[in-house]
Amino acid sequence: MSAEPSHWLIRCVVVGGATRPFLSRLAREKGVWNFFFNGSRSAVADHSRTRARVVQFVENEEFFIVVESERLSEIMEFCYVSLHLDQPGRGTLYVTPTERVSGFVLTEDAALD
């Protein structure tokens, strides 16, 4: 691994509904178009001694952005401020050098099928 990675992967998990407008602003205002977005739904359960029941469904959205080292601080700050990540429960932000992200590679047998 080199001393300074050339690209970084920003992974952000936020409360549902915040991602699409944010990604539009990111593309328009910062010129970043290389991102991937997906959503998920999880259940929150209420447990007692006699039963467990689902209280509510929580929708989260997750997106990944690949940025150059020179723009990492700028884009991270934009994410943090735009998505209000300073407020508890709004989301999380992770940053990883792309050199540490491993891709899925098919074996020779699987590639032949």
TrEMBL record:
InterPro entries: N-reg_PII-like_a/b. SUPFAM superfamilies: GlnB-like. This is Nitrogen regulatory protein P-II. It comes from Magnetospirillum sulfuroxidans. The lineage of its organism: Bacteria, Pseudomonadati, Pseudomonadota, Alphaproteobacteria, Rhodospirillales.
